[in-house]
Amino acid sequence: MSNWREYILNEFVPQISKLTIVADPDALLIEEKLAFELKNRGFDLIEFNDPIEFRYIYELKYRAKWDQGEQTDLVVVLRIKDSELETLPYDLLKTGRKLFFNLGELFPNLSYPVIEKLDRSHLDVLFDAQKKYTPDRMGDNATKDFILRHVFGIEANLISNEVELLRELLRLHYRKITMPELLSNRLVQVLRYHGSFHSWPLEEIVPDEKVFFAFLQERWPVFLDRILAETESTEKSLETDFKYPGPEVLPFDHQDIRVYIDNLFVEGKLIPVQRPEISAETPSWIRSGIAESSGEYNDIRTTRLLEIVEKSVPGRESRHSDWLEFAMKWAELGSLVHSGCQAKEWERSQQIGTSLNNTFAEWLSDHYAALIDLPPINPAMLHHVPRMLAREMETKSNTKVALIVVDGLSLEQWIAIRQILHEQDHGLVMQESATFAWIPTLTSVSRQAIFAGKIPFFYPSSINTTNNENNLWRQFWESKGLSKLDIGYKRGMGDGNVVNVLDDTLNPGKTRAIGLVVDKVDKIMHGMQLGAAGMHNQIKQWCQEGFLSSLIGYLLDQDYQVWLTSDHGNIECRGKGKPSEGVIAETRGERVRIYPTPELRALVAKSFNFAREWEPIGLPSGYFPLVAGGNDAFIREGDGIVGHGGISIEEVIVPLVKFERKAC
Fold it and tell me: Cross-referenced Pfam families, in alphabetical order (predicted)?
């Protein structure tokens, strides 16, 4: 076999059986590329999680077709061992053929408890290494070392000095390469065994990207002060009041390290510090970490970010994680551009945006469906978020969770307010990530998915309203074993005294899961007349008033695990004409129109070549979106708005942030 997927795909030949039941304890079938290939072969995948939900979609979409004599290629996936398949309903067992796949069959000589923790995106490299080196039967530690060496490119035994250690950690964390806890623990164990890094906080900086960059941030001013001391030929006392132990001065100037430094500052992973005494002739990689009082620094940073994003736009074959990582860079650039930049840079960013959104739209049409059933450990989509929170509760007793949904907050607008939140609360630690919103990117579709923890297919009666969110949120948590008194929900927030606002919703001693909607950003957007730049300014002004910071701080003080996300982003658009269709469209938005049949949608689409007929993935019956592409809108020709509903990267990829307090 050329790759591990062939082992599975060989069993899936179209039109052999209308129903295939698969025991898949290791979630192999929902791996992105495999799910994509199965979809291309005409197979529909459904996970059997909730029996009632499964029965609803099974009877409605498939049994009805079989009764009419139609053929399907339906695959029902269960996260169980093959011996447990017999617990399924009799009608399924009688109708379908049965298959079983697991990691042990793919990697027979490696330790199963180790490889099952590995992200499925790493299986390709591991499979190739297994073929090339044909290892004998391995135990846990040998398997860990084999994976570290051949999957992550780390030969732990050969890391003998601080340059080599820094280089490996920079490579991992800059590229957002995450490894399972048991592998990071093994790496730390080997490094500790050599004894070269006894003062380093390895247990913190090896597994945690945020802590590693904080470790670097503490030592950057010391490095600059050393440069000043050498320039002035005088002794200078260096500030060494560090939170994280380790060497006071790091070799930032080593050629293997400095290649990362300017990118880290340009992309916002490190924050420049004030050192006006340093000469203007200092190398550019050092100057990237020195804060400038004028706008010159932002211009330089904008130019560098433009270069970075142009080289790193993902392609149609990329994984969703590649797009999420890129979206963070794109958001950093967007935040800079909308804070003021030269006309030339603005024009260049618009050109890049047009091209990348065309690529993104094509990628979505190919891969979006494969995201729906990915495991919620690192939520790929918004409906995974409450499932991830529920897992946190299951693994850590007495955990309380608070989910803040800032309606309409784009990723680049999050970047714009992130620094304000830090200035208002210096003890705040933010673990930033991103996730995919539901398409169409409408509040009634995507925000409900957050609070329901389900795909929109399961709430057809409320698809055009948000009035059922409270009930959906409560139903989700009651299904996880919480009582009605354990659950809280409130919307319409954004101003006022936080304690008073939450008085009728939050019982700190009792409420274990609270969902909160802050709708101030959405209100700003729908009243915006000054474009994206004006919206950035108003959102910053609102954030400076302190409500969001107070809300986060209050929840942390009440011992909640606090998360923030958004139901959709937004994009500045220009009108390309408004359809004259009477009552044909059931929803008539600026970036999306919804039709009851594909025929009616196609009729309107003929006159609007900038629009795409979006396949109704995960949406209720009779719900067919026509979405605007690029930065076009269904409004009067030439008019401008800031809107949402479409499939641009600015609308679809939204922030997902966890807040914590710095340990004293």
Answer: PglZ
Residue 440, preceding peptide bond in cis (omega within 30° of 0): yes
Phi, psi values for residue 656, rounded to 5°: -140, 110
Question: Tens of pLDDT along 613-647?
Answer: 999 999 999 999 999 988 999 999 988 899 999 99
Taking the C-alpha atoms of residue 410 and residue 32, their distance in angstroms, rounded to an integer, is 25
DSSP 8-state code for residue 244: S
Contacts for 48-55: CB closer than 8 Å, 24+ residues apart: 48/76, 48/77, 48/78, 48/88, 50/479, 51/89, 53/454, 53/458
User: 237 CB contacts (<8 Å, ≥6 apart)?
Assistant: none
> What six digits make up the tokens of 329?
């860079």
Q: Please say whether the beta carbons of 616 and 626 come within 8 A.
A: no
Tokens of 428: 């705040």
The SS3 call for residue 662 is coil
Q: Are 118 and 139 in contact (CB under 8 A)?
A: no
d(CA 536, CA 336): 10
Q: What share of the chain is helix, strand, coil (3-state, %, to 5)?
A: 50, 15, 40
pLDDT in tens, 197-250: 989 999 999 999 989 999 999 999 999 988 888 776 555 555 567 888 999 999
Q: What DSSP line would sit under 426-441, residue for residue?
A: TTEEEEEEEEEPPSS-
**Contacts with 72 (C-beta within 8 Å, 6 or more apart), sequence order:** 18, 19, 44, 62, 65, 66
Residue 93: count other Cβ atoms within 10 Å of its Cβ: 14
Provide CB contacts within 8 A for 660, sequence distance 6+: 428, 429, 431, 556, 562
Answer for the pair 275, 290: CB distance below 8 angstroms, yes or no: yes
Buried residues in 41-68 as b, exposed as e (16+ CB within 10 A): eebebbbbeeeebbeeebeeebbeeeee
The dotted CATH code for 386-570+651-661 is 3.40.720.10
Q: Which strands form 97-100's sheet, in the order they lie side by side?
A: 44-47, 74-78, 19-23, 97-100
Give ∠ CA 157-163-165 in degrees, rounded to 5: 40
Which CATH number fits the domain 4-104, given the four candidates 3.30.160, 3.30.70, 3.40.50, 3.40.1110? 3.40.50
Instruction: Sketch the domain layout of the chain as residue ranges.
Output: 4-104, 112-151, 158-287, 296-357, 386-570+651-661, 572-643
pTM: 0.90
